[in-house]
Specification:
The structure holds two protein chains of two kinds. By secondary structure, chain A is of the alpha/beta class. Chain A has ten helices and ten strands. By secondary structure, chain B is an all-alpha fold. In chain B, helix 1 (about 15-35) packs parallel to helix 8 and helix 10 packs parallel to helix 16. The chains are: A alpha/beta, B mainly alpha.
Chain lengths: ~260, ~550
């Protein structure tokens, strides 16, 4: 059983802390949802978890060892879907996935087989030779998902994986995440979509202004906040403003002469 | 048309306006200043040239400035080829606005005129300011100076307008005639051909000016077809030095400029609607199929050269980026085009000389320099194009999968350059030498060229610590001019000196053995240099950052 542990993570940009004292643990079979408003430090945390950014203080442990000890070996065990679908537009979908698989050291027959089956399952097989630059946002997102799953990683880190996906694909991915948890993968899932987090995550962590505001199962958070749903609990914990009133103010501003 | 610095990561060749205009004006400044000794009265006295006529003496230099003006302006138009007409970004931003498309067209034409004007002024301002001063400096008459200034100003400015309009016309005609997908496909090839053409025009500066005064008696009418000759004739006509033929050619310059300009505007208007509406389809999914031959070649090269997963993935990525990335292909095209022009000149020049014989036929130094020249520019072109990033924001993939401590980058770059170079060398060597000079010379010559090229590849990639195309562009540094100077000197050592030495050695093949200790010493020097590199000189980078005052070694983390 592997586990990802973040211990007192802190990240400062020009002395301003973007993330401060973030700690959590994630074991195999768990799906940890990370919620927070814009600028709460979710993406910064993710970047530290995958080793793209060094923490100013604190450490990330995987299997009890600091990931910095052998970053390449650690990353081989991690599948990552970034927030933005930045892919090489001049490569075809197939070429991009081959690039990912080869860089991860997969052998060619296995790689080819997996790419074919996953492209088929994500309905991208007919477009596999077209340039990624011509793909829609949802298609690029599906390519990223395939790239993350290709090497059957132990740990999956998803940053807004449903962004741009159509209803069917989103449904598939939601079920997939749940299933991956059940099959013993550790999944770190960042999202703004509370309903999805509530449905697929076994544990939830709420960030606000770079700090952990609450942590536990969705039921625990609901009960602690004394709310009926995770959405209400989140609003209760995080939002300073009344969303209904802000919407009304915006509509009024549009009509102002 | 000229993006600011904030989008520089998307297009690696975005330099920003200030630096771009500075660079464009630079050749004019240097060329004018280098001519000071030719026209200085003191130098004339020292040379004993007391009947020095600045107007006559300036003809070759005037031709060069006209050629330079045309080449640099055309280069700007070729470089900004995709931005001259509205692109996808413009379409997305402008199409939803409640503005008539005729307004966009007007704005686009106005912007184009502004660009032509700004480029023509910028490219020529140094030569307009300095060259007449340099030429007429020893003359006290202001009229003499004013006439020369007038003629030079009109000649170089019209040459700029002509070349920009010509490129613009080609772009718009292709846009109007070809189906959009075909236009996009052939666009890069047309640009590469245009690069070769403008380099060829610049190369004529060495030979054509001497023929202009006697052009009336010449039967070689191809000279009269050169636009540079028209504009030089126009200059001569304005100076009052024209004969009937050059006057006619000067007139042709005026007509050609007017016609090309009008034609460029007309074709721009004609192609605009089509271009604007098809911008939205620029990213439409094109049907494509698997390239079986390409895959077979990749498998072969993988088996023979690239063994590790990193090398295999990076090689596929590099070749595809090089072929499909426009900026990258253009940078390589510039260098290869220059190499082809210079080696063609050597080849043509050598054909006019008698073949020397020492009991057996020996290729001349010029002919021996052909593969060396091609090799030099191909190596430099590849090395420079590796610096131009492609889709920089997508490089997170390499950041995630490649260890920063990996030392594979330099070795990988060396292998890629060698893979591109060797077929060119073999093809060039076998076709040029084997049939005319026999296998013995061919094998010896190609061996020397290969060894010298491999050493040069080692030198240019010694501090290369990037995966090609994945790192941000190096900033323009104060030592960049020195680097360019070193490249020029390097060319003379690599191509001219080596081929001359080879020619000398081939007179008695035993002399070839002298190459062994020289090349061996260079190889040892390279190895010593490689060993002296520190950890910071070799770790993989994805961002070109300005050097910091204090470098941290990150000793708290394991390497």
């Amino acid at each position: 059983m592997v586990s990802l542990v973040a211990r007192n993570l802190m990240k400062c940009y020009t002395s301003v802390p973007a993330v401060e004292d973030v700690s959590f643990s994630l074991r195999s079979g768990e799906v940890l949802g990370c919620l927070g408003p814009n600028g709460s430090g979710k993406s910064t945390t993710v970047r530290m978890l995958i080793g793209l950014s060094d923490p100013t203080r604190g450490e990330v442990l995987f299997g009890g060892k600091n990931i910095r000890m052998n970053l390449v070996a650690y990353r081989k065990l991690v599948g990552y879907v970034p927030e933005e679908a930045n892919l090489y537009p001049f490569l075809s979908g197939l070429e991009y996935l081959e690039l990912v698989g080869t860089l991860r050291g997969m052998d060619e027959p296995t790689l080819r087989k997996r790419i074919d089956s996953m492209l088929e399952l994500f309905s991208l097989h007919p477009h596999r030779h077209s340039a990624v630059g011509s793909y829609s946002k949802g298609m690029r997102q599906r390519i990223l998902l395939i790239a993350a799953l290709l090497d059957d990683p132990e740990l999956l880190i998803f940053d807004e994986p449903l962004s741009g996906l159509d209803v069917t694909s989103a449904l598939i991915v939601k079920n997939l995440i749940k299933l991956l948890g059940e099959r013993g993968k550790a999944v770190f899932y960042c999202s703004h979509v509370l309903e999805v987090v509530e449905k697929v995550c076994s544990h939830v962590m709420i960030l606000r202004k770079g700090r952990v505001l609450a942590q536990g199962s969705a039921d625990d958070l609901r009960q602690a906040a004394g709310q009926s749903s995770l959405e209400h609990a989140f609003v209760h914990l995080v939002e300073d403003r009344d969303a209904t009133q802000t919407a009304r103010d915006l509509a009024d501003a549009m009509a102002t002469a | 048309m000229i993006h600011g610095g904030e989008t520089a990561d998307e297009d690696g060749l975005d330099l920003g306006m200030g630096l771009l205009f500075g660079l464009l004006a630079l050749p004019g400044v240097f060329s004018s200043l280098f001519l000071a000794d030719k026209y200085g009265s003191l130098f004339q006295v020292l040379r004993g040239d007391l009947d020095f006529d600045p107007y006559s003496a300036s003809l070759p230099d005037e031709y060069f400035f006209i050629a330079l003006s045309m080449v640099v302006t055309a280069a700007v138009a070729i470089w900004k080829w995709d931005s001259l007409l509205p692109d996808r970004r413009d379409y997305i931003n402008l199409a939803p606005l409640p503005i008539a498309s005729s307004s966009f067209l007007g704005a686009n034409i106005f912007a184009l005129l502004l660009l032509v004007g700004a480029t023509a002024v910028d490219v020529n301002i140094a030569s307009i300011g300095l060259f007449p001063l340099v030429v007429c400096g020893s003359h006290s008459s202001l009229t003499y100076f004013a006439i020369f200034l007038d003629a030079h100003l009109v000649g170089v400015t019209l040459a700029s307008v002509f070349s920009f309009s010509a490129v613009m016309t080609i772009l718009c005609v292709l846009m109007s005639v070809l189906p959009f997908r075909l236009f996009r496909k052939c666009s890069m090839y047309v640009r590469c051909i245009l690069i070769a053409v403008i380099l060829g025009i610049l190369a004529t500066s060495a030979t054509v000016p001497g023929e202009i005064q006697g052009i009336a008696e010449h039967t070689r009418s191809w000279l009269k077809l050169l636009p540079t000759v028209w504009f030089t004739s126009l200059d001569q006509w304005m100076l009052g030095r024209a004969n009937p033929t050059t006057a006619m050619l000067g007139n042709r310059a005026l007509i050609a400029t007017g016609l090309t300009f009008v034609f460029a505007i007309c074709t721009c208007v004609f192609s605009y609607r089509r271009c604007f509406t098809s911008s939205g389809e620029a990213n439409a999914m094109l049907p494509a199929r698997e390239n079986a031959i390409g895959n077979w070649i990749y498998r072969m090269v993988h088996r023979l050269v690239f063994q590790t997963p990193f090398e295999r993935a990076a090689f596929r990525f590099t070749t595809k980026a090089l072929v499909r990335g426009e900026s990258q292909a253009l940078v390589l095209g510039w260098f290869v085009g220059l190499g082809i022009v210079i080696s063609s000149q050597s080849l043509v020049g050598s054909l006019t000389q008698p073949i020397s014989s020492m009991g057996q036929r020996i290729p001349s130094a010029e002919i021996l320099s052909v593969p060396l020249t091609l090799s030099y520019f191909l190596i430099l072109g590849l090395r420079c194009s590796f610096e131009v990033p492609i889709a920089l924001r997508a490089n997170w993939l390499f950041r995630l999968t490649v260890s920063p401590d990996s030392r594979e980058c330099a070795a990988f770059a060396r292998k890629v350059i060698a893979v591109f170079l060797l077929p060119v060398l073999l093809l060039c060597g076998l076709s040029l030498y084997a049939s005319s000079w026999g296998w013995k010379f061919t094998v010896v010559h190609l061996t020397i060229v290969t060894v010298v090229s491999v050493l040069f590849i080692e030198i240019v990639s010694i501090q290369f610590r990037k995966i090609p195309f994945t790192c941000s562009m190096p900033r323009f540094k104060s030592n960049s001019i020195v680097v360019i100077f070193i490249y020029v000197v390097g060319f003379f050592i690599f191509s001219t000196a080596t081929s001359t030495a080879e020619h000398w050695a081939f007179q008695d093949l035993r002399r070839v053995l002298i190459f062994l200790p020289v090349l061996g010493a260079i190889w040892l020097g390279i190895k010593y240099w490689q060993k002296s590199l520190t950890y910071l000189d070799t770790r993989v980078i994805f961002d070109e950052l300005p050097p910091t005052v204090v470098e941290t070694l990150n000793l708290n983390t394991s390497r």
